[in-house]
Specification:
This protein is α/β, with parallel strands linked by helices. It is 45% helix and 16% strand. Helix 4 (62-75) links the parallel strand 3 (51-58) and strand 4. The structure holds cytidine-5'-monophosphate.
Length: 233
């Protein structure tokens, strides 16, 4: 389980991680927090032995993305995101940039943002359904040497068939039964997402907005452990 640190500044991030660090190993730092606080929020987490998912969704020319991925790897993060729509040359350059690192982060490609529907895709000149476009971009990513993807619960089983067991599928939109759905549209419970083939679950508000975040995190970890237990006969 990866907890999304969707907070505006380093002080709020420190307060939240202090509550959670005994229970949770993984933390996601996204654009809001990284633009506000930069490496100063990532480095202390890494120094305390946590695994950081740097979710910056990179999309630029190959040389720039390769250099950014190298900077992320130097910070010691364990996962970094980039847009598959950047194309095969950009993805391959990002992959090659990690060759010099002994313990490189996993590159995760974002295929189609969950905010995009068929109409939005059409407006950008892509005459396909989101599902078709996800499949096309995932195939392209795999061919370029990227085996990790961020995907919605709705896409996880199709992507798992495409990647096989080696794929690293990171799935947001997780809501334990009874949790507020908020603005998420394609949701799954932790157990369902795991059964459909997720490797990691990203959980934000069900933990960060809970009256007791550590207790909420423990309950989700317990549900995950139960889902992974072999079915009793
Ligand atoms: O609060 P919640 O559990 O909805 O947070 C989910 C996290 O996953 C947020 O940081 C959100 O930006 C991220 N995310 C997402 N959907 C995607 C990609 C990332 O919800 N397709």
């Amino acid at each position: 389980m990866i907890v999304a640190l969707d907070v505006p500044d380093a002080r709020s991030a420190a307060a939240l991680t202090a509550q959670l660090e005994k229970t949770c190993q993984w933390f996601k730092v996204g654009l809001e927090l990284f633009i506000a606080a930069g490496p100063s929020v990532v480095l202390p987490l890494v120094a305390r032995g946590h695994s950081v998912f740097l979710d910056l969704k990179l999309h630029d020319i190959p040389n720039t993305v390769a250099a950014a991925v190298r900077s992320a790897a130097s910070l010691g993060v364990r996962m970094v995101t980039l847009h598959a729509a950047g194309g095969p040359v950009m993805l391959a350059a990002a992959r090659a940039a990690l060759d010099d690192f002994e313990n490189p982060p996993e590159l995760l490609a974002v295929t189609v943002l969950t905010s995009m529907d068929e109409h939005q895709l059409g407006a950008t000149g892509i005459p396909r359904s989101p599902a078709q476009q996800v499949e096309l971009l995932a195939g392209m990513g795999l061919a370029a040497g990227v085996k990790g993807f961020v995907c919605s619960p709705k896409e996880v089983s199709a992507l798992r068939s495409l990647t096989g067991p080696a794929g690293v599928l990171v799935v947001p939109g997780i809501r334990p039964i009874g949790a507020a759905i908020g603005d998420q549209k394609r949701i799954a419970t932790p157990a369902d997402a795991l059964r459909q083939g997720a490797s990691y679950l990203v959980v934000g508000r069900p933990i960060t907005q809970a009256p007791d975040p550590a207790e909420a995190a423990e309950a989700i970890l317990k549900e995950m452990a139960e889902a992974l237990e072999p079915a009793s006969t």
